Task: structure prediction
Amino acid sequence: MDAWDSFTGEVEVCEGEGGWHTVAVPQELGTSFKDLPKGNFGYIAITARIASSEWETSFLPVGDGTYFLAIPAKVRKKQQIAPGDKVTVEFSFRGRPV
Result:
């Protein structure tokens, strides 16, 4: 697996039904993704890790060139993550040529 990169951000809850818990990818980091292979709708396949929780997911595009990561309920529960918490996200790209 590729080397892990990381960033720290604040957990936010999206408005609307379902209330996804997300963390924004820093804009300066997101701009470095422009040459990466993207899936349907601009998703970027990653393996994410917060503390001891690791899962396969994607960075999701916002539409303005920025990205976010949705944090699943099982990860939030295991790591006791709540809105407003600062989390460090480690990630590694999946499907990127080595």
Q: What stands out?
A: The helical segments are 27-30, 73-79. The first helix runs from residue 27 to 30.
